[in-house]
C-alpha cells in the first residue's frame, strides 16, 4: 500500500461531512439521522485502525444513540424555534470558533509530534530487522 | 506507510474535537448540544485509538486493555446521553420549554394547549 489510499481519504472526507451536517442541519431530526451515519462511519475508521471490537461497539452504540435521539427529536419538535433566540451572537460565535480552532490545532500538533521512533525495539536479528524495515519503507 | 494513515486519522480526530466543542458551545437547542457532545466524544476516543495505534506501530503489541477502556468509554457516553435525553424530555414535559432561563422566550409558549 503506497500512502493513504482512496478508502482512507474518502472515509475521512465522509466522516467530516457527517460531522458538519450534524451542526448545520436545520431540523434536529435530520441532525440525528446524520449522527447515525457519523457513528457508523466512525466504526469504519476503527476498523481501519485495526480494532474490530471497538468498531463493533461504536457501530452498535451509534445506532442505539441515534434511535434515542430520533425519538426525542420527534417528541420535542415544538421546542425547536423557541430555542433559536438563545444562540450566541456573531461576535461570540467567532470568538468561540477561534478558540475551538486553537484547541483543534493543539490536538493535531500532539498527533503529529507523537510520531513513532524510527528504530523500533526489535528482538529480531539484524538481518530480519533490516528486511522488516525495508518492507515497512516500501509500504 | 502505516504511520501516515494513522496520522491522518489523528488529524481527523483533532478536527472532530474542534467541531464538537464548537457545536457544544454555540448550538441553542439542548438536543443539538447532546449531538455535538457525542461528536466531541467520538473525536476524543479516536485520539485515544490513534495514540494506541502509534504505540503499536512503534514495536509494542496492541494493548487489549486499552481497547477495553475505549469500549467502556463509548458505553459510558451512551449512558450519559440517555440520562441527558431523559432529563431533557422530563423538563419539556413539565414546563413545555427546553431552557433553564427564568423568563419564557415567548409569552404563553406551551401553555396555549391547556387553556
Average pLDDT for all residues of chain A: 83
Helix count from the secondary structure assignment of chain A: 6
| Uncertain regions spanning at least 5 consecutive residues of chain A | none
Name given to the CATH architecture of chain B? Orthogonal Bundle
Gyration radius of chain A, rounded: 21 Å
Distance from first to last alpha carbon of chain B: 68 Å
- What shape does the CA trace of chain B take? elongated
| DSSP E strands of chain A, number | 0
Radius of gyration of chain B: 20 Å
Average pLDDT score of chain B: 83
How far from one another are the termini of chain A?
A: 5 Å
Features:
heterodimer; A: 139 residues; mainly alpha; 6 helices; 76% helix; flat; B: 115 residues
Lay out the secondary structure:
The complex is a heterodimer of chains A (139) and B (115).
Chain A: H1 6-24, H2 28-48, H3 52-75, H4 80-83, H5 90-113, H6 126-138
Helix pairs in contact in A: 1-2, 2-3
Chain B: H1 2-26, H2 30-57, H3 64-95
Helix pairs in contact in B: 1-2, 2-3
Describe this structure in words.
The complex is a heterodimer of chains A (139) and B (115). Chain A has 139 residues and is mainly alpha-helical. Chain A has helices spanning 6-24, 28-48, 52-75, 80-83, 90-113, 126-138. Chain A folds into 2 domains: 1-87; 88-139. Chain A is built from 6 helices and no strands. The N and C termini of chain A lie close together (5 Å). Chain B has one domain (2-95): Orthogonal Bundle (Helix Hairpins). The longest helix of chain B is centred in the last third of the chain and has 32 residues, at 64-95. The N and C termini of chain B lie far apart (68 Å). The model of chain B is unreliable at 109-115 (pLDDT under 50). Chains A and B meet through α1, α2, α3, α4 and α5 of A and α1, α2 and α3 of B.
Amino acid at each position: 500500500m503506497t500512502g493513504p489510499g482512496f478508502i482512507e481519504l474518502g472515509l475521512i472526507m465522509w466522516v467530516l461531512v457527517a460531522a458538519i451536517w450534524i451542526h448545520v442541519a436545520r431540523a434536529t431530526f435530520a441532525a440525528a439521522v446524520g449522527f447515525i451515519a457519523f457513528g457508523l462511519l466512525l466504526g469504519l475508521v476503527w476498523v481501519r485502525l485495526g480494532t474490530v471490537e471497538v468498531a463493533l461497539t461504536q457501530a452498535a452504540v451509534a445506532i442505539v444513540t441515534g434511535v434515542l435521539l430520533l425519538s426525542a427529536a420527534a417528541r420535542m419538535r415544538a421546542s425547536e424555534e423557541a430555542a433559536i433566540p438563545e444562540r450566541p451572537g456573531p461576535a461570540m460565535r467567532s470568538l468561540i470558533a477561534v478558540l475551538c480552532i486553537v484547541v483543534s490545532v493543539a490536538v493535531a500538533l500532539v498527533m503529529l509530534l507523537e510520531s513513532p521512533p524510527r528504530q523500533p525495539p526489535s528482538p529480531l536479528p539484524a538481518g530480519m530487522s533490516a528486511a522488516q524495515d525495508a518492507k515497512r519503507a516500501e509500504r | 506507510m502505516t504511520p501516515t494513515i494513522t496520522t491522518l486519522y489523528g488529524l481527523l480526530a483533532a478536527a472532530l474535537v474542534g467541531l464538537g466543542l464548537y457545536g457544544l458551545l454555540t448550538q441553542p437547542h439542548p438536543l443539538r448540544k447532546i449531538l455535538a457532545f457525542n461528536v466531541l466524544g467520538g473525536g476524543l476516543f479516536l485520539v485515544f485509538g490513534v495514540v494506541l495505534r502509534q504505540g503499536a506501530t512503534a514495536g509494542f503489541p496492541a494493548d487489549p486493555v486499552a481497547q477495553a477502556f475505549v469500549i467502556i468509554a463509548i458505553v459510558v457516553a451512551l449512558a450519559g446521553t440517555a440520562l441527558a435525553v431523559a432529563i431533557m424530555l422530563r423538563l419539556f414535559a413539565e414546563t413545555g420549554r427546553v431552557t433553564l432561563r427564568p423568563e419564557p422566550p415567548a409569552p404563553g409558549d406551551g401553555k396555549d394547549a391547556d387553556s
